[in-house]
Amino acid sequence: MASKMEKRLTMVSGGHLPSNKLLEALSSRPFVHQVDVVFPFNPKLQTAFSELETEFHTSFGPISEIYEALRAYIQESDPASGVYVASTGKFLPDAWSCAGGSFNLSAGKETYEALGLPGTKISSKMSGAPEQHPISIPLTRRSDYVRNHDFILNTFARWDRSRESSGEGQWEFAFHISKPDSGAGPLSCSRAQCHQVKPAIRRLANVRIPLATLSPRPQPHSVSTGPSVCHAPTRSNDVSKEAGLEDDDALQDWNEEISSLFEWVGMVSIGAQRLQANDRVDPYVAVYSAPAPSTVGDVVHVRWCGFLNPRFVQKILDTATTLLPERAPTASGSPLIALTIHGSTEAPVPMPYRLPRSDGEDTASIILVPGSSPNEDNTGGQWAMLETIGKWDSRFG
User: Fold this and answer.
1) For residue 300, is pLDDT > 70?
2) b/e per residue, 285-313, with b = 16+ CB within 10 A?
3) What is the percent of the chain with per-residue pLDDT over 90, rounded to a whole number?
């Protein structure tokens, strides 16, 4: 019997560029494993995105050595200079990461009880969640809590011995640091393996491209919850009810329109044949129509995969917003640029609470279009974002 599909939570937002909301969406995903960019063919855009490259390292070691190497590196460097480290999901429910100057450990019940480090029971924050304990350890303090540091180091050394005797062995992890030559121990270049990340570029010809515009989201009609009062209907009441129905219809239309745009972006990312202008699939087999109105042309899909640090992801977004045309063609709609950011769900983060897991969901899809009118005060462009997260994630409340 097939397992029941897990409930996903979605949130749609939008506004004008520049936007702090987009920056917040990126900062809530410090560990990203894939970014997709989609846009109608434009040589300048394709060249700009093709030049964006980064790198990351993979290594291994006992947790005590990794912790000590991270602490030494951060205390000798600016904590905000860019240190992002995360274990693989090999030993879930136990997992750890480092970002923002803190060492973040998510321990299962047995590990938590054995370690004896103070932490939070995640089920106390999210009812029904598995028994998991997030532990956050600051690495930026030089002189404070020396006894605590010694206790933590001894605790991790004891954990290493226990893992060795049980056959689990050393941790495998990926990392990005701003000064790789300064890393020591498991973070050293001689011990770590460097991975270059270059974009994979694909051009889809003869594709239906929506002429996207992003209108403001209509406000849902509010219904009074006060006591009911019986009276003869008046013309003003009738007008109010009709306006409410129109508001609800407008909201439904807006939801369908924005959903179809995000669906189109997803179809391009998987190279779906249904997007071809000459597609003649049997309607009994599959039915798909690009959002209307649309035109026919070539679309470019760019993809980066690997351990992508937040600064690189921000650079991709900055490239898109900088090169977004300042004005939309009045006759043919807006030349959109779409980004889809796939966050890692296996790495723990300090806040908000979320459960590290291999089958989780953490995606942000962003559509950018130019400003629709030369007379607008907000000429930087408009954006819409669809965020999707899985179960045991408290970001949406």
Assistant:
1) yes
2) eeeeebbeebeeeebbbbebebbbbbebb
3) 44
- 63-76 and 146-166 helices, crossing angle to 10°: 150
Phi, psi (degrees; rounded to nearest 5) at 202: -135, 140
The CA angle 265-331-41, to the nearest 5 degrees, is 40
The separation between CA 43 and the C-alpha centre of its own chain, rounded to angstroms, equals 27
pLDDT in tens, 122-157: 888 888 888 899 999 988 765 455 558 888 999 999
Contact between residue 94 and residue 108 where contact means Cβ atoms under 8 Å apart: yes
Which has the higher per-residue pLDDT, 4 or 385? 385
pLDDT per residue over 58-108, tens digit each?
A: 999 999 999 999 998 888 876 556 889 999 999 999 999 999 888 999 999
CA distance 349 to 29: 9
Cα 114 from Cα 125, distance rounded (Å): 22
pTM for this model (two decimals)? 0.86
The answer to whether 203 touches 300, Cβ cutoff 8 Å, is yes
- Whether the upstream peptide bond of residue 93 has omega within 30° of 0, thus cis, is yes
Could you tell me where the DSSP H helices lie in 77-189? 109-115, 146-166
Band (pLDDT 50/70/90 cuts) for residue 239 is very low
Question: Distance between the two ends of the chain, CA-based, in angstroms?
Answer: 32
**Alpha helices, DSSP H, located in the chain:** 20-27, 43-50, 63-76, 109-115, 146-166, 235-269, 310-323
Q: What average pLDDT does the chain have?
A: 83
C-alpha distances in angstroms, 386 versus 9, 19, 225? 10, 15, 30
Alpha-carbon distances of 34 from 31, 159, 230, 232, 362, rounded to whole Å: 10, 32, 58, 60, 11
**pLDDT tens-digit map of 187-232:** 988 889 999 999 999 999 888 888 877 877 777 654 433 333 333 3
Element (H, E) at 107: strand 102-108
Strand, coil or helix: 255:
helix
Q: Among 42, 311, 321, 32, which Cα is nearest to 201's?
A: 42
Q: Encoding tokens for residue 121? A: 């029971």
Q: Which of 96, 61, 30, 99 is nearest to 187 (CA)?
A: 61
